[in-house]
Amino acid sequence: TKSYVGVDNAPKQYVSRQRRRPYAFNVMVVGESGLGKTTFINTLFHSVLKEQKSRPLESTKTVEINAKSYDLTESGVHLRLSVIDTPGFGDRMNRYEDLNPIIEYIDTQNQNYLQQEQNRNPRPYFKDSRVHLLLYFISPTGKRIKDLDIFSLSKLSGKVNIIPVIAKSDTLTADEKIVFKNAIMKRLEKEDIKIYPYNYCDDRASISHLETHIPFAVVGCNTLVEVNGKRIRGRAHRWGIIDVENEQHSDFIHLRELIMSVTKSRNLNDLVISTNDIHYNSFRTTYLQQNDT
Ligand code: GDP
What we know:
Keywords: Coiled coil, GTP-binding, Nucleotide-binding
Domain Septin-type G: 21-290
Protein name: Septin domain-containing protein
Family: Belongs to the TRAFAC class TrmE-Era-EngA-EngB-Septin-like GTPase superfamily. Septin GTPase family.
Organism: Rozella allomycis (strain CSF55)
Bound molecules: guanosine-5'-diphosphate
Strand order of the largest sheet: 2-3-4-1-5-6-7
């Protein structure tokens, strides 16, 4: 059987190097409070992961930055998944400043990696805490993307792999979702906001089946409901049940395919590679230029 998270697909060399250390995958979730970020992460990773440890990393009076790590072993490869949550984002009067600790966190992890390179540590022993994926939760207004969301996405663009998702999409009708998605894509293009894999893919044909779903309209749910004798992960509404894994109801399975599929060429490893080759590289170039004494 194929591995669920896609560790199987990592190039052999990478895997053998990573046998010594867990293969690190770090995902950050950003978006206003109450948009279902915590719920969604649990939905996305529920079947494979058991919480190992939780440690508050950085705490400011405003936005907290928390990382939770989960350990997983598949085909002899150890995966350590860290989920970096940012509770409190967008809660204050001056919400725009809430982005500062998030950007600082991303930069600090890049600096830590650079430090290890400069110390000439053997690469297999590097600790990789760089953010490999940032899931950005857009408020489901249905009409216009909020200024805070555009501001944040612009600042984060080019620093990390961003996958934008429409939060709590069960609050929109099917037609509203289409209109909203088009409006978001137009705006992202206008503001030159770079998203994954759209702006980082040489081979657009390989993602064409996914392009129509970007930004992914998601629904999070941690409870199981019974439908026709089967227990499914879903949200019960007055008009019926939203099945998170039904593609008529949400884009969950497409997003999961993009992040974790092993049958397609994209998976966690692709996100790690583009973090290293694109984002970290450009961080390093700028950083070294600025700190050249
Ligand atoms: P966070 O602050 O972004 O981490 O949000 P939470 O995951 O704590 O969710 C906030 C509330 O929204 C909870 O009551 C959830 O049950 C509810 N919720 C989470 N996801 C969804 C969703 O996709 N649709 C709807 N309608 N409610 C949701």
